[in-house]
TrEMBL record:
The keyword Oxidoreductase applies. Pfam families: ELFV_dehydrog (PF00208). It comes from the Eukaryota. One of its GO terms (biological process) is L-glutamate catabolic process. InterPro entries: Aminoacid_DH-like_N_sf, Glu/Leu/Phe/Val/Trp_DH_C, Glu/Leu/Phe/Val_DH_AS, NAD(P)-bd_dom_sf. This is Glutamate/phenylalanine/leucine/valine/L-tryptophan dehydrogenase C-terminal domain-containing protein. Belongs to the Glu/Leu/Phe/Val dehydrogenases family. Residues 137-387 form the Glutamate/phenylalanine/leucine/valine/L-tryptophan dehydrogenase C-terminal domain. SMART domains: ELFV_dehydrog. The keyword Cell membrane does not apply. Keywords: Oxidoreductase.
Amino acid sequence: MVYPSSTDAHALESARQYNEAYNLAFAQQLKNKDIPEGGSKAVVLCDPIVGPVGDVAPRDFIIRKSVKAFSDALLDLNTTDEAVKEKIVDYYGQDELIYLGPDENIIPEDITWMTNRAAYRGYPIPRAFISSKPDAGFNHKVYGVTSEGVAVFADVALRSQNIDPTKQPFTVKITGGTDGDVAGNVIKILHREYGNNLRVVGICDGTGVVEDPQGLDMPELLRLVHDSLPLSSFDGSKVSSTGVKHDINTQEGIRARNSMHNRVKSDLFIPAGGRPNTINENNWRDYLDADGKPSSGLIVEGANLFITPEARQLLFDNAGVVIVKDSSANKCGVVCSSYEIVASMLLETDEFLAVKDELVVEVVDKLRALARVEAQLLFREYKKDPTSALPPASERISRAITRVHDAVLAHFDDVCEADQQILFTLIEEHLPPKLRELALDRVQQNVPLAYLRSIVASSLASKIVYREGLQFTEALPDSNLGNMALQYLKQEKKVQRLVQDVRSSQLSNKDDIADLLARGGVRAGMDTPN
């Protein structure tokens, strides 16, 4: 929800919001590669002027009314009412389910209203209409789910630069406030994982900037995170003699805040807030010092579109800056939402609430594992060819997974019943353990078949690409891709049985043999002629 402050601001937003929505939707589709839902974005531009005499309505009133109008419009187009369906121009011709995720200016009361409205309007699975529900959902800020993934990508990225964050001090600068979702949580998570090795040397938000080359006072930062306070609340007495704090009440403070991401030197830069296109093809040189060296040689994009594609490439070509793209680094937020959606399909609200704490832990474990396998693949690809930047590799990974996903879906109807049952074992693998325990027997009844098939396709595609790399699937023709994926899964099942047999044998080196089988047996089996 975008709320301009004036008619002029509304005109400016009207001119740029289509492009921003398109770019965000493109990034979202890349980001959604690991989950059954496709990616899209919607921007609702509110008109602050209402009435015949140009009255300015209260901001909150307009946003809340706009949320309701937008929700009803979507429900109109996804109705079960046959009389309404007859009036819809539908070029797709198939039933669709939409799963919304809240973003800017959406509050918990909106989410509750939208869920209830979906039920009132007869939406087939109203609890799955929108994620991040305040009760039967996973609040992204409370559980830091996006930041969990960002932290994993940061870990793998630092290690690629020969920095072991568990053993060595490292410095990081962050855009985005201590009261923000991604920035606040990433501070908390990095401190949880690395303790005093973490040194935040600069952080800025809408209220100011705090810097210290020796590292800011960590207890004070964590206090602000815990209390959801902005940087303007940072206790000035906790700033050391080598540090500085600026608010935005002076021109000097504004300049310091706006330039922090360029000036402050650190091992790692995490953009976790700020406007899209902050670093672009016109100003990327500001990120370099007088000698042409970058202020941080490693960037993990916690925020969407902070750096333009052109600027990413220019920073890499001219200064060797290694950048982990947003669609990889911050994907875990949407993956978490996907788990909430399937939980909404399988559990009643009271059931969900009874196991929510346990389920959150299991979901976070899955998020971190999914982030790690992609991060490891990214840097394996980079190690093969250090002359190629990471962002194109990130997009290649997304396209490779989506290509296999689509091929598996297209191949489904040609697969015999026995092989379909093998494919559907991936659903059990996809679900967190507690969800399997409580509701595996409800899957066929509660979850739409198209969604189940998409779980299978996305799970299998991710498994193959992350394990085998890009060249394995890119070398295969579309005509054989779906069948190859099925054969890969069948070979994996065979290898798993062999591994169990070896581990239960009396061989003296059985564990070494089993580990080798587990690591390379599937690919070796695929490459062996029948």
